[in-house]
């Protein structure tokens, strides 16, 4: 594997929504690590997987609602830990859950989660992860069979185990997320998390008491029937990864399949919904 990377440095306006859309689109390419900056993001791709047309079909770059500029450079042997130590701040959710990197000091929070932060999604910085943590903090998970769908870094699966959930399946279609989830589960001494690489087709025949799906609107809508089919009676479905304006279509998809809306959190136009079967 090449140790030489191409690093792209983007300035993004408006910052928060633009950066998240940009990361999502770049993530579908060969970009494998992202660092959020004060003005946008930096994104890194192995030189072996790069060519000069790599940004040609990144749609947000031609979207008039966003102003995005960038430079790029060749970087030898990126030291990800060093990069993250410069940019990664520990997260505190409601004083109860602390999410930190190995190089941060431990606090006396009730739930102390340590992750190796190699990309932006799932570190707790993103609004959707923060709100899903809020949902889980106020939910009784003891003995509940749980699914973390689109697990990213497995932070939500790890918190679920800390709150007594078991057994837990964590699934992501991305190979890097699959490997990083295994690493983070081990780092937090989790014994009840099984990590799988794949999509909703892995759910056929499975049953869960709690399903956590923090992905994006289109995938959620596409896979909703499968989630509902997997959910036990009185089971809970947590959904995030979309905006306030997406609530009607997401809610309609859920209620038409027999789920009942319970509550939601909102944070900077992002939403996390709770439904019960």
TrEMBL record:
Recorded catalytic activity of this chain's protein: L-lysyl-[protein] + 3 S-adenosyl-L-methionine = N(6),N(6),N(6)-trimethyl-L-lysyl-[protein] + 3 S-adenosyl-L-homocysteine + 3 H(+)
Top-rank taxon: Bacteria
Pfam families recorded: PrmA (PF06325)
Positions with a binding annotation for S-adenosyl-L-methionine: 129, 150, 172, 214
The protein's enzyme class: transferase
GO cellular component: ribosome
Keywords: Cytoplasm, Methyltransferase, Ribonucleoprotein, Ribosomal protein, S-adenosyl-L-methionine, Transferase
Annotated localization: Cytoplasm
BP-aspect Gene Ontology terms: methylation
InterPro entries the UniProt entry points to: Ribosomal_L11_MeTrfase_PrmA, Ribosomal_PrmA_MeTrfase, SAM-dependent_MTases_sf
EC number: 2.1.1.-
One Gene Ontology MF term: methyltransferase activity
Family: Belongs to the methyltransferase superfamily. PrmA family.
Role description: Methylates ribosomal protein L11.
Record HAMAP family: Methyltr_PrmA
Name of the protein: Ribosomal protein L11 methyltransferase
